[in-house]
Amino acid sequence: MKVSVDHERCYGSGDCAHRVPAVFVLAETGYGTVLPGGEDSGADPEVQEAADWCPSQAIVIADR
Ligand code: SF4
After folding, report:
1. CA distances from 8 to 22, 37, 45 (A)
2. pLDDT for position 43
3. Count of CB atoms within 10 A of residue 37's CB?
4. In the structure, which protein residues have their CB atom closer than 6 angstroms to any atom of ligand 1?
5. Distance, CA 43 to ligand 1 centroid (Å)?
6. How high is the pLDDT of residue 64?
7. Per-residue pLDDT of the chain (64 residues; tens, 9 = 90+)
8. Closest ligand 1 atom number to CA of residue 26
9. Deepest in the core among 4, 12, 28, 50, taking most CB within 10 A?
10. pTM (two decimals)
């Protein structure tokens, strides 16, 4: 499952990068971003938890 961050919703709280640093980073742009190679980690329970806890619901998990 694919994971991505909707930058129109993200406001850069950094929660995702704090919670799952292997997948998310707070980029210099100020947005949470999926690290290269992390795009297919949407099935990871920690990633799903990060999506659930994202304060702006900006983390998108999709089947493809
Ligand atoms: S937790 Fe959500 S709002 Fe915060 S940086 Fe990550 S994607 Fe953006």
Report:
1. 23, 22, 24
2. 97
3. 9
4. 5, 10-16, 26, 32, 54-56, 58-59
5. 18
6. 63
7. 999 999 999 999 999 999 999 999 999 999 999 999 999 999 999 999 999 999 999 999 998 6
8. 5
9. 50
10. 0.94
- Per the structure block, which two tokens stand in for 20? 């799952």
Domains and CATH numbers, the chain: 2-62 (3.30.70.20)
The structure tokens listed for 21 are: 């640093």
Contact of 24 with 62, CB cutoff 8 Å: no
Q: In this structure, which residue's CA is closest to atom 2 in ligand 1?
A: 54
Pocket test for ligand 1, best of 3, 7, 11, 13 (most atoms within 8 A of CB): 13
From 6, 33, 54, mutation site for ligand 1 pocket: most ligand atoms within 8 A of C-beta: 54
